[in-house]
Give the backbone structure.
Amino acid sequence: MATIKYIGRTNDFRGKTLWEIVGNLKNFGVGRIVVRSMFERYPEPSFMKIVKVEALPDEEPTRKVRVTVEKTFRGQKSPNLVQIESVSYKADYRLLARHEEESYCKLVERQEKIFPREIDLPPLLKEFVVRETGKPAPKVPIKLKVGRESRYRVAEGNEKPTVDVTMTIGKPASPSLYANCEL
């Protein structure tokens, strides 16, 4: 019996290309909701409502289409219309059925995560700093890189953080190795 050996890159795409989806719909799917499977890993809904469709010249073996959409990513609606062109050839899109649209597109308010202003140092670094400075419990301030989609920030003043950040090694695979260590 012959064995099959796959050569080349693999991908995690599940679905159809935008060309396949809009080409089979009345009015090219204007007003319909399309979901990119790659974004379904997030708990908040991510979807695109088709506003306008334009075909692009077929220069390569992959067919591309320019689709103007109202994009909602992780429950946050983009203020401007977005054009999808360069990723339209990826077989990673699926069309939502009309009866699923209302329940899937419900926007849920994401909770803001508040981090503490300072955290403990990692255990080994903590030992070095204690020996060098003599301070019993050295801490390092948190600096967060805040992007446009982020819903987290550092606590201000006496505000209580909602996220607990601890520096531990977690549950060891072999606890006997750490029997005489302080964790």
Notes: The mean pLDDT is 83. The CA atoms of residues 117 and 134 lie 22 Å apart. The first strand starts at residue 33 and ends at 36.
